[in-house]
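B., you asked whether I could sanity-check this one before it goes into the benchmark set. Here's the sequence:
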Amino acid sequence: KEQIKSRFLNKMNDLLIETGFGTSIEIEVSQEIKEDVGAADRAVAAAVPARLSLSRNGLNPNYIFSSFVVGKSNRLPHAACLAVADSPGVAYNPLFIWGKVGLGKTHLMHAIGHHIETTQPNTKVLYVSAEKFTNDLITSIRNNTNNEFRSRYRELDVLMIDDVQFIAGKEQTQEEVFHTFNALHNSKKQVIISSDRPPRDIQGVEDRLVSRFEWGLVTDIQPPDLETRVAILQKKAEIKNYQIPEDIVLFIAQNIPSNIRELEGALNRIVACSEFNSDPMTMENVTVWLKDLLHDTRSGPVNIGLLQQLVAESFGISMEDLLSPKRTADLALARQVAMYLARNKTSESLQQIGYAFNRKDHTTVIHACKKIEALLKTDLRVRSFVDNVVSKL
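And here's what the prediction gave me:
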């Protein structure tokens, strides 16, 4: 039981919440399986009583405000969600949160639900995916239980519908969402909606619904910056009791710039590879373990992590040495070239570039840029290194 909980419970919760079927899983073993059980059918029968208990409100116990990392990219939606959680039906109604996949929309919605349930225990809260809402509607039509369906959704105090873009082109689902929205909003009940795009960009959704989605507050979550990505990884590692070296955390944050789910997936992968293979968590090992993810970043926007990789390869040095405080001539030059390219090929600030190289003072970056600019005019070797890296972008 304990091994299943430690290795699989969080993943099971996450998978269930993605499918919209509720998430608070508890594992109980009602009967211990003895080693002398001989027949396969008896062994299976003995295992069946293990019971899963799902929360009826669809809330994931891991998604709470205290585990959400706030940065520049999500400060406004986070503040809006706190306001709604404190005063449901009053602050912003409806609250519409949009942003690309894996940026924290679902986390914030669940956090609102948990906060309301804690501070207002008698409040009826429900989180569903738009797909689950649609499936419930189809089931009610098939079983002739439309009244029960409508009562369930229209007698809530707080309704959260995730990934509402799923209802595009589904006329009957949109009809039910429309009337459910009206019933709740007219009763001053809170409605919270998420999507991967703003309301007016959702093709195939009726104008009357789009208009209602925009009645309250529409706010978006942007991809996190480097510092926020590092903080997210540190928080995830803390929650899961992972021991991850700081340079590895920074390396992952630099190379997976846009998606929090991918960040967490990379973190889980390196921990699993390290444990299963009994290998140390070195930069070289991590680069191999995350090879497919790192390769994908090369086809996307240029980022500091990619430039560091290419410079390290070009100079024939390791990432550890590039990011270390060592001051040998070749390492110092490689570091300065990487800083120069980061300044000229990315939109990161001097402070962010310095942070990516474990340098607290951004004047180091200014000095590096000036030095490489001067060397490019006179030193063919330096020019060759820079051209080689740029040609691989």
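One thing to flag: Residues 2-19 form the longest helix (18 residues). Otherwise nothing jumped out at me.
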